[in-house]
């Protein structure tokens, strides 16, 4: 009989069960969780405000709406007691959209425009730049004390003229126009030069010399047909433009020569009757012209197939070599045969992976030098390794293999350790030799884990800009085609075409990037399908 039954039989009152004690630390845990949630939502609010302020200033209401919608979604998910899985998925999804999907969409949208040097802004900005750059000084032109500055980095930031007028007022002049600065935000020496300004970096003499040509061409638009240009490094003047825009004919008229440059809205430029085009234009959509240019332009079409063939061969060759070498060394280190200093050997094998790749590429380039390179001196040779097409290609494959095999060695080592040794032993008992056991048992299981790694290695090396540019710069070049080198990849060839000539051509570069993306995506999908079929076989 139970104690309760005995007590009931004896007439004793039944004892109530003891209350369950609270879990220690529960209040503090809930407080910590609440504090973490408040901090995360506060950070989300701060990021939303930081992103919305410039969007509001630029009147980009679509962007403001997107920021508001994302912020509302974050608050809804994390303040609601439901949607628990979404609480974990939302941060990763937002980061995926921000750092993967949006850059791809922006690249695609840029690829169908003429965006680049001379075509960066809209038509109004192009007109203001044309008029400002043609400013000439007149006898009654106002003068300013000039200080050259930059908005951000001194070497790459947008130029800004800090101008001190005769009455002591300080202005900041950029490509958009003049902005009066608060006296409390600037420091001016007795001569009127600005020595310090909030939000701007005053350039030193050396930095000014490095950007001398850019400063000489820079002008600040100030009104209808007027602008401010530099006169030396300490003075600037406001003058009148010799080229002015006429709205009735939608053209720019040069008062000095009388030539009219009519607006060509399809090309985003002002063009004269004899075909001369002003350098300053505006951004417009060009459809698939950038794609067609790369495929049909005689200067690029003649080299496209040969570069693509070498590009695929380089990526496939590198992937095969690093896989074979990395796997072979991993098998050697994985054997049960006693090997003294196994740990030291593994450290030495991983050493190239720990080295900065750009420094090693430059070092290898010097080692292949014909006259004083280490390779020729040690082997007693006189080979121009980087001057011949095939030796240069072989050199790059050798260097890239040396840099890449440690990673494959580490991956293969981990994959081998996940395969039970009993499977190989069972195959040996059934009469299979060492090679047969590896070929029919170990390798298929290994490829299930390593095929995605091989696909990513191929995709990475397909766009391995550093390996080629820092070693051979795409050369050697044939005398009849100085734009396409024997070791050029599509990415290095595009860089030379888009940024090595007359200014930067971001639209054209984006179009070729989209083509490269499609090629790599197609090859990767085919490879991953093969990997999937391999998984089915090994189930």
Automatic annotation (TrEMBL):
Transmembrane segments: 31-53, 59-79, 86-106, 308-332, 344-364, 395-416, 437-460, 506-526
Entry keyword annotation includes Mitochondrion: no
Chain's role: Part of the ABC transporter complex MalEFGK involved in maltose/maltodextrin import. Probably responsible for the translocation of the substrate across the membrane.
Protein family per UniProt: Belongs to the binding-protein-dependent transport system permease family. MalFG subfamily.
Primary location: membrane
Topology class, membrane: Multi-pass membrane protein
Gene3D superfamilies: MalF N-terminal region-like, MetI-like
Gene Ontology, cellular component aspect: maltose transport complex
Record keywords: Cell membrane, Membrane, Sugar transport, Transmembrane, Transmembrane helix, Transport
One Gene Ontology term from the biological process aspect of the record: maltodextrin transmembrane transport
Any single Pfam family the record assigns to this protein: TM_PBP2_N
Name the UniProt record assigns to this protein: Maltose/maltodextrin transport system permease protein
Domain ABC transmembrane type-1 residue range list: 308-527
């Amino acid at each position: 009989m139970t104690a309760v039954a005995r007590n009931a039989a004896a007439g004793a009152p039944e004892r109530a069960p003891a209350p369950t004690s609270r879990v220690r630390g529960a209040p503090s845990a809930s407080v910590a969780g609440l504090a973490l949630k408040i901090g995360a939502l506060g950070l989300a609010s701060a990021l939303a405000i930081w992103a919305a302020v410039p969007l509001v200033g630029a009147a980009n209401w679509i962007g403001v709406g997107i920021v508001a919608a994302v912020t509302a979604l974050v608050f809804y998910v994390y303040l609601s007691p439901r949607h628990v899985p979404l609480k974990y998925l939302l941060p990763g999804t937002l980061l995926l959209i921000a750092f993967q999907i949006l850059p791809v969409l922006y690249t695609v949208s840029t690829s169908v425009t003429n965006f680049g040097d001379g075509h960066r802004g809209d038509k109004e900005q192009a007109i203001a730049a044309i008029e400002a750059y043609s400013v000439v000084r007149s006898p009654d032109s106002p003068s300013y004390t000039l200080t050259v500055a930059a908005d951000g980095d001194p070497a790459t930031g947008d130029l800004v003229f800090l101008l001190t007028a005769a009455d002591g007022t300080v202005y900041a002049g950029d490509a958009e126009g003049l902005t009066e600065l608060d006296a409390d935000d600037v420091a001016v020496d007795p001569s009127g030069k600005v020595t310090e300004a909030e939000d701007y970096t005053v350039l030193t003499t050396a930095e000014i010399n490095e950007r001398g040509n850019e400063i000489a061409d820079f002008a600040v638009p100030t009104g209808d047909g007027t602008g401010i240009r530099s006169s030396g490094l300490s003075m600037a003047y406001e003058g009148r433009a010799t080229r002015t825009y006429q709205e009735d004919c939608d053209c720019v008229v040069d008062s000095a020569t009388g030539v009219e440059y009519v607006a060509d809205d399809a090309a985003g430029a002002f063009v004269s009757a004899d075909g001369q085009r002003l350098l300053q234009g505006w951004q417009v959509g060009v459809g698939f012209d950038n794609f067609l240019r790369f495929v049909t332009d005689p200067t690029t079409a003649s080299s496209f197939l040969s570069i693509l063939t070498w590009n695929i061969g380089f990526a496939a060759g590198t992937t095969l070599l690093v896989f074979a070498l990395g796997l072979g060394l991993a098998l050697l280190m994985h054997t049960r045969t006693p090997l003294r200093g196994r740990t030291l050997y593994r450290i030495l094998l991983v050493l190239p992976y720990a080295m900065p790749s750009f420094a090693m590429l430059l070092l290898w380039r010097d080692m292949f030098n014909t006259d004083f390179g280490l390779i020729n001196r040690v082997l007693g040779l006189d080979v121009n390794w980087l001057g011949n097409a095939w030796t240069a290609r072989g050199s790059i494959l050798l260097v890239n293999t040396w840099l890449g095999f440690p990673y494959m060695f580490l991956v293969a080592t981990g994959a081998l350790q996940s395969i039970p040794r009993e499977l190989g032993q069972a195959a040996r008992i059934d009469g299979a030799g060492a090679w047969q056991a590896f070929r029919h048992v170990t390798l298929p299981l290994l490829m299930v884990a390593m095929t995605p790694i091989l696909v990513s290695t191929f995709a990475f090396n397909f766009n391995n800009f550093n390996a080629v540019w820092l070693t051979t710069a795409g050369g050697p070049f044939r005398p009849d085609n100085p734009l396409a080198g024997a070791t050029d990849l599509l990415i290095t060839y595009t860089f030379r075409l888009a940024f090595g000539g007359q200014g930067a051509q971001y639209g054209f570069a984006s179009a070729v990037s989209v083509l490269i993306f499609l090629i790599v995506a197609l090859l990767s999908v085919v490879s991953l399908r093969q990997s999937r079929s391999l998984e089915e076989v090994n189930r």
